[in-house]
Amino acid sequence: MLMGTVACSVRPALHGVSSASIQAKPGRIRIMAIKVGDKLPDATFNTMSPEGPKPMTTADVFDGKKVVLFAVPGAFTPTCHNTHLPGFIQIAGDMKSKGIDTIACVSVNDVFVLNAWAKQTGAEGKILFLADGSADFTKKIGLEFDLTARGLGVRSRRYSMVIENGVVKSMNLEEGATVDKSSAATVCGML
Ligand code: BEZ
C-alpha cells in the first residue's frame, strides 16, 4: 500500500490525522492512505471568492453534504487539463441530479493558478476548486506524490471519492498515469 511519509522533526504536530493509520519508524512517521469508512482530517484549503482568496475548512466543505471530490496532480498539466477536469465539467449536472451537493477539485497548487484554471476551462460555478498549496490535506490523507525529480515538487495522486458528511463512501485511486477509476463517468456510475 502506498503511504505518505513525514519526518517527525519537521511535523511534530499531527492534528487531524486521526482518520489515517500512523505507523512509527525510527525518525519517521508513515501515514497510511485514507480508505472507505474514514473521516476526512481537519484541514484548511484556499478558495477564490469575489472578494479574493478565502479559507475553507474541511468542515465548511463536507459537513452535512454529499460531495464528489477529485484530485489532480496539477492545474493545466496535460492529462488533468485535457481529460480529467473536462469529464467533471461535462457531467456536473448529472451528478447534481443524482443528489450530489458539491463537486470539488483539490490540487497542490496556489489559489490563483486554480482560479485561472477554473476561468479558462469554464468550470467556474460548476466545480469548487480547493487549493492545497502546501499539500497539508494531501499529506494528511497519505496521498502525496513526489514529483520533485520532474520539477513539480510534492503533488497529489489522482483520485476521486464520494464523501458523505465528511466520511469516505467510495475511493477511486489511480495506480498508473491514466484517468480510469477516478474519471467523472466512473464515479457518476456509482451514484
Ligand atoms: C498530467 O499530464 O496531468 C501531468 C503531467 C506531469 C505531471 C503531473 C501531471
What would your notes on this structure say?
This protein has 191 residues and is of the alpha+beta class. The protein has 2 domains: 1-32, no CATH class; 33-190, Glutaredoxin, CATH 3.40.30.10. It has 5 helices and 12 strands. The strands form 4 sheets. It has a 5-stranded mixed sheet. Strands 1-3-2 form a 3-stranded antiparallel sheet, with no helix packed on it. A two-stranded antiparallel sheet has the order 4-5. The two termini are 26 Å apart. The relative contact order is 0.20. Benzoic acid binds next to α2.
The value of Rg in angstroms is 16 Å
CATH class of the largest domain: Alpha Beta
Helix segment count? Answer: 5
Overall form:
globular
Main sheet: strands, sense, barrel: 5 strands, mixed
Uncertain regions: pLDDT < 50 for 5+ in a row?
Answer: 1-19
Distance, first to last CA: 26 Å
In short:
The protein is an alpha+beta fold and 191 residues long. The protein has helices at residues 58-62, 78-97, 111-121, 136-140, 184-189, and strands at residues 3-7, 22-25, 28-32, 44-49, 52-57, 66-72, 102-107, 128-131, 144-147, 153-156, 159-164, 167-173.
